[in-house]
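C-alpha cells please, single chain.
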Amino acid sequence: MLDLAPWHDFWLFVGGASATLAGLVFVALTLRMREILGSRHAVTLARGAFYYFLTAMGLAAILLAPWPDDRSLAIVLLIAGSISLVQSVLAVTRLRNAPAQEREALRAIPIVWRLAGPVLARVMVLVGGVAVLNGDGRGQGALAVAALLLVVIGAGNAWDLVTAFEGR
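Here you go.
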C-alpha cells in the first residue's frame, strides 16, 4: 500500500490554499462581473484560474481520502487526469479557433504558460496515476508537481485578470 502519510500536510496545504484562492477568484468575479463578462479574454482568464484551483483542490481531496487499496486510488487518478486533460485540449482548441483580437490579447502573456503548463500538469496527474498503479511511490512527486503547476498558473491567471481592469 502506498504510504500517503508523509505527504498529508502537503496535500492539506494544497487543498486549503486552492480552495481559498478559488474563493478569492469568485469574489473578484462578483465585484467586476460586468467588465469580465464583457471581455472574452477576461472570461478565459477567470475560467482558467477557477478551474486550475478547483483541479488542484480536487487532487488534494483525492489524495487525502482513505482508499482501500492502491488500485482504487490509481483508477480515480487516471480518470480525473484523463477528464482534466480532455478539458485542457478543448481549451487549447477554443483558443486556436478564437477571433484574432482575443488571441492577440493573450500574446501579452507567454502562450507556453497559458497552454503547455496546464496540459503538462494534467499529464503529470496521469503519470502519477500510472506510478501508483504500479506501486511506485515516486508517483506522489509527479502529483505534487501537477498540483503546484496548477496553483501557480491559476495564480498567474488570477493576477492577470485583476490587473486587466486596473485604472478602469
